[in-house]
Design brief:
This protein is an alpha/beta fold. The chain contains eleven helices and nine strands. The protein is globular, with a radius of gyration of 18 Å.
Length: 277
């Protein structure tokens, strides 16, 4: 299965017991709730997973970042309850062109489940095309999901601090450059990191989708990917996964630093770099 599926592909598989559709809408603005958006309407048969509760470990303090990497136990329990088993094809979507749903994509792949794809264009494209929507909540039969972390897919703060050949920052350029920092404790980026804003993985269509593989490959090879496997980070290990999806689509690979800037910037002993050089 490719990393992306089209709205047409998914439309033809509604009701397929082998496909589990997962709504992963989430908002930084705490006045909005993904659960409320899901309740107001979702792709038929979809279940809802919450970024904070289901795809992250509990936050114990800024030293672990805003979305700590989930344990094998948490992943096993959440996925099993969602009806995701060893043979389940998962399709994840959000209303931010995959920026949040990509976290589920990477969590599953990093825990040994490769049968997962993003709905290309997400909720905006699905609704914009007039495809069916429902408010009824599916109750999937629980499954057995045994999460086994592939440790090589994750790097730690210590790994990054020790020095890595290619580190990519997926945040928007103003945050990378330290021109603005609306969320975390310090502005700037990890010294030596290269900026590759996740939004540039997308087309500029009315309903943005991922750019073609050749375009994505050219984008990342220009940054040195291919000669080196990059480690990707963002604010809290979420939108970085969008870059990791794009790398996969391009036939390349990368690893995630889950703590990302929220963890790094909270440690006063670690250096910070600003500017867009």
């Amino acid at each position: 299965m490719d990393a992306l599926v089209s709205t047409e592909w998914l439309s033809g598989r509604l009701g397929d017991e082998g496909v589990r559709i997962v709504d992963v809408r989430w908002y930084l603005d705490k006045s909005r709730r993904g659960q409320d958006a899901f309740a107001a309407g979702h792709v038929p048969g979809a279940v809802f997973l919450d970024l904070d509760r289901d795809l992250s470990a509990p936050v114990s303090g800024p030293e672990r970042g805003r979305h700590p990497w989930p344990s094998e136990e948490l992943v096993s329990r959440v996925m099993g309850k969602a009806g995701i088993g060893p043979g389940t094809q998962v399709v994840a979507y959000d209303d931010q062109a995959g920026a949040i749903a990509a976290r589920l994509w990477y969590v599953l792949r990093a825990h040994g489940h490769d049968a997962v794809a993003l709905l290309d264009g997400g909720w905006a494209k699905w609704v914009g095309e007039g495809r069916p929507v429902e408010t009824a909540v599916a109750e999937p039969k629980p499954a057995t999901f045994v999460a086994r972390l592939r440790p090589e897919r994750i790097v730690t703060k210590a790994d990054v601090a020790a020095g890595l050949p290619l580190v990519i920052d997926a945040r928007a350029t103003p945050r990378y450059a330290g021109e603005s920092e609306p969320i975390d404790s310090r502005a700037g980026h990890i010294p030596g990191a290269t900026n590759a804003p996740y939004a540039l993985n997308l087309t500029t269509d009315a309903f943005p989708v991922f750019r073609p593989p050749a375009e994505l490959r050219a984008r990342y090879e220009a940054l040195g990917v291919g000669r080196e496997e990059p480690v990707v980070y963002c604010g809290s290990g979420v939108t970085a996964c969008h870059d990791l999806v794009a790398l996969h689509v391009a036939g390349l690979s990368g690893r995630l630093y889950p703590g990302s800037w929220s963890e790094w910037s909270a440690d006063p002993a670690l250096p910070v770099e600003t500017g867009n050089g």
